[in-house]
Amino acid sequence: MAKDFNNQQVVDGYDQHIRKLIPGYEVVHLQILAILKAHLHTHANILIIGAGTGYELGYLLQQFPQCRFTVTELSTAMLEKAKNYVAPWNLDERVHFILGQHTQLINQPKFDAVLSILVTHFVPFDQKQCFLHSAQQCLSATGIFLTFDLMQFESVSQSNGLKQICELNGLSKQQTQAMLSRMQDDFFPLTEIQTRNFLQQAGFGYVERFCQILTYQGYIARLKTE
């Protein structure tokens, strides 16, 4: 059964649980921060697709004190959790919170960066093209799109490797097996080739992988080639 992100118990335990599920979770966010610092100007406008508990938004608010943020989220419980979490760094109200899809923003002022971190793999296959194309339409001409997601397993050894690292991170064997079984309900992963094709078909002229940790990969995309 897929996880219910409107369930308060799931929401409250998310930050601790995700660090056991995602290998190198903190390192991934550090890389994303480095890329943003290398590309963004002082007063950049940033869109985060999927607020989650607000962890990602919280550290970006601290690292970019003059940037403005728009954050979308489909779960009411998650959005409220995010609002409460980032409140100490949002006293100047630099964040616009939206309960709903980023697709409603395509005709709004464009963003210098759009982030979809651990979100795109939840989007059903028949909706991915619309999801990515809408993200592309939210970008300014020089903006960057960052995505980091679970990729499709290409062998049994890959799923076994993920199982092992989750157990090394603190999950029980029962929890890890439940996670692997649940992936069929929760995730719609792509291969590397499919990811690049989807991004190019969505209108991105430049696509580059910026990291890989086991079966998770991160990509940076721009409208134009360098």
TrEMBL record:
InterPro entries: Methyltransf_12, SAM-dependent_MTases_sf. One of its GO terms (biological process) is methylation. Pfam families: Methyltransf_12. The keyword Transferase applies. It comes from Acinetobacter celticus. This is SAM-dependent methyltransferase. Keywords: Methyltransferase, Transferase. Residues 47-145 form the Methyltransferase type domain. One of its GO terms (molecular function) is methyltransferase activity. It comes from the Bacteria. CDD domains: AdoMet_MTases.
